[in-house]
Amino acid sequence: MAISDKMTDSKSKPMIVIIGAGIIGLTTALRLQAQLPSSSTDILLVAKEWPTSIPGAPPSHSVDYASMWAGAHVRPIPASTPQLTREAAWLKTTCTEFARQVEKEPSIGVTSTKGVEFLDNPPKDYAAQTKESFEKETGLVGYRRCNTGELPEGAKLGYEYSTYCINAPVYCANLLRKFIARGGRTMQRDLRTEWEAFILRDNVKVVINASGMGFGDTKCFPTRGQTVVTDLVEATRTVTRQNQDGSWSFIIPRFFAGGTIMGGTKEPGSWHAEPNPTQRAKLLKGGNALTKYATDEAVRAPQDVNVIADVVGRRPTRDGGVRIQVEEKQLTGRDGELRTGHVVHAYGAGGRGFEISWGVADEVSQLACQVFRDLIGTKSKL
Ligand SMILES: Cc1cc2nc3c(=O)[nH]c(=O)nc-3n(C[C@H](O)[C@H](O)[C@H](O)COP(=O)(O)OP(=O)(O)OC[C@H]3O[C@@H](n4cnc5c(N)ncnc54)[C@H](O)[C@@H]3O)c2cc1C
């Protein structure tokens, strides 16, 4: 993928800069393109790291580029707090877009499949879910409670529903291609602060900060995730178990030749970047115990399931959830003149970036368009 750093005919066009080529920056960029005509606006995506998806090639991304390490599946969480309610609405919007993509863009990297969940110690909000409440909250259909005989030993609650799996690197690379094909501009840069983006071009009006963790926000922290990519290609369903001890076991098929993920840890505040062999053994044990729920085919013995790669990624988590907010600051121009810079923040998606992406992108792009239109003075110009 060529990363262009050129300005051609667009010097005079007002520009929006998006920092970040993760799932939040990419979906926001595409939503902005749909709202602002390229004849009168330039959109520039700036990032330190970019999506790549070359089957069989070793990944070369840092642990901080979360979007390359995600499973990824849609696994709804009951909307039992204000933050979860906000996220549930975003998830519902995202599922509508995934349904459209599965139908209209079948090679983009999203696959419709069945999700199966088991809980050893179900919290009240999971136990209280019904087919009606689940489907209303998520937009996902096919909710069905498992009979006791269908549960693995030790599990107290189980259910299934129609959901989506995303091959994260393939999907992100395809979103980036779409952005470029629609006239989007790209630049590789490691920025010191979101405010630095205003000096990248002469006519930057608004900057969107979709940098994952933000720049020094003390509410942000990593949630380390270790998983294992295996060759369990016969898995066609995503299965999740919330274990008695609070740990998680899951299987996520990465359709489009991406193997199958067995995971995974959720370690708030852990910066450890290397795979831990003890954790790996536990993940494989938990994953292999679930394989019979992930496929209708004969189940392979654990020793016959091969590891393709160990994965460690840092989920960009933020107390209070995603920050979507406009911030203004006085900036000094090249000739010393003062101007006000406007940044729209869009970071802190934690462990849910893919499943809430299009809902977040809608909200961020609408906010950014509003600020942008106010700044350039007139809606009729667009
Ligand atoms: C193991 C694991 C499993 C996961 N499973 C799921 C799942 O099943 N479902 C789900 O929905 N989510 C899942 N997630 C979470 C998901 O990956 C994240 O929520 C999502 O990727 C966050 O996207 P983002 O765009 O905010 O950040 P990122 O993907 O981290 O992207 C940040 C972007 O900003 C750029 N950037 C950062 N700093 C700078 C700088 N200084 N200058 C320039 N550019 C910069 C980066 O280079 C990158 O392009 C999982 C995560 C992990 C680690």
TrEMBL record:
Keyword NADP: no
InterPro entries assigned to the protein according to its UniProt record, in alphabetical order: D-amino_acid_oxidase_CS, DAO, FAD-dep_OxRdtase
Gene3D superfamilies: D-Amino Acid Oxidase, subunit A, domain 2, NAD(P)-binding Rossmann-like Domain
SUPFAM superfamilies in alphabetical order: FAD-linked reductases, C-terminal domain, Nucleotide-binding domain
Keyword entries, A-Z: FAD, Flavoprotein, Oxidoreductase
The FAD dependent oxidoreductase domain, residue ranges: 16-367
One GO location term (cellular component): cytoplasm
Name this protein carries in UniProt: FAD dependent oxidoreductase
Organism this protein belongs to: Emericellopsis atlantica
Lineage: Eukaryota, Fungi, Dikarya, Ascomycota, Pezizomycotina
